[in-house]
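PROTEIN DESIGN WORKSHEET
SECTION A - STRUCTURE
LENGTH: 308
TOKENS:
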């Protein structure tokens, strides 16, 4: 974690609040102060949440334990876990159990010893750091599971899943989408002539160029070896065609510079615009058929599937 760890101190007693703020700053933490429970909750429910919160049990407005309950009830809080330490003058076992039950991670009984506070905060810091490492690892795994390692675009599974999602969305919103299947013309010849390394570079460059003409909510995925699927939501046949034509042109208009060689590359596209009641499988079949037609009609062209 590159940034300074941020700690919220919510305490209604000014002397304790100022003292706590002072020692925490001295120990190198960034400190945010709150005078009561409502202020604490507004800080904890904002975007830049602190990593650790020291919440006084008894405060005007919301009690510390209530703030704690709300933080844990917030469904979006998993990715930035707040480590909560309750400060309490209560030391009965029942109170402590209640505090832990609503989701506090630890508690400190007042008046407290600064050294004890320091080690408790360090324990919290370790949990937070571990959590953030786990989240990065999880995100990394998720990326690997859904993306093609060579080109970085969606892999087959992920683009098909995206197609299902976009189709349901289109139905919900009463809109249509365009699906395009792209195939690189004579790709085998590129591999045979210049080697597989060159083939890989071409695949990456194709993805790069196609992405540059797509909008942020369009999606591209590798469907097979040199075949890609592009989902273009919110388009009808007319606008879909123009995007496909743009894709075809962005490949043709400039030669590829691969391993010191200039290569002319073109792609063929088969496209289809969704109509009511059509499913993903039928769309793919229609795009595939149109692609076959584009190849048969001489390549470097876009063919549109007839209304299905
Ligand atoms: Mg108090």
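SECTION B - SEQUENCE
RESIDUE ASSIGNMENT:
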């Amino acid at each position: 974690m590159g940034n300074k760890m941020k700690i919220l101190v919510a305490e209604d007693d000014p002397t304790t609040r100022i003292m706590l703020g002072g020692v925490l700053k001295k120990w190198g933490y960034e400190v945010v102060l709150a005078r009561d429970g409502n202020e604490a909750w507004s800080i904890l429910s904002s975007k830049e949440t602190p990593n650790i919160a020291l919440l006084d049990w008894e405060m005007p407005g919301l009690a510390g334990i209530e703030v704690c309950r709300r933080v844990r009830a917030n469904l979006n809080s998993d990715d930035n876990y707040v480590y909560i330490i309750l400060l309490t003058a209560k030391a009965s076992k029942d109170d402590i159990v209640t505090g832990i039950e609503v989701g506090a991670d630890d508690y400190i009984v007042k008046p407290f010893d600064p050294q004890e506070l320091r080690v408790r905060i360090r324990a919290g810091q370790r949990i937070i750091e571990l959590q953030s490492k786990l989240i990065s690892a999880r995100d990394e795994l998720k990326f690997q599971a859904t993306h093609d390692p060579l080109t970085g675009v969606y892999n087959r599974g992920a683009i098909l899943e995206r197609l299902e999602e976009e189709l349901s969305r289109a139905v919900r919103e009463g809109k249509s989408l365009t699906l395009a299947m792209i195939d690189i013309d004579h790709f085998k010849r590129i591999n045979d002539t210049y080697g597989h390394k060159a083939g890989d570079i071409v695949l990456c460059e194709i993805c790069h160029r196609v992405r540059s003409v797509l909008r942020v909510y369009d999606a591209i995925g590798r469907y097979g070896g040199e075949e890609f699927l592009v989902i273009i939501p919110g388009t009808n046949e007319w606008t879909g065609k123009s995007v496909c034509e743009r894709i075809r042109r962005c490949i043709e208009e400039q030669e590829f510079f691969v391993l010191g060689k200039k290569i002319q590359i073109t792609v063929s596209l088969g496209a289809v615009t969704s109509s009511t009641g059509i499913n993903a499988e039928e769309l793919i079949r229609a795009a595939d058929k149109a692609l076959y037609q584009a190849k048969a009609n001489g390549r470097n062209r876009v063919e549109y599937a007839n209304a299905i």
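SECTION C - NOTES
The mean pLDDT is 93.
The pocket of magnesium ion is lined by residues 12-13, 56, 58-59 (CB under 6 Å).
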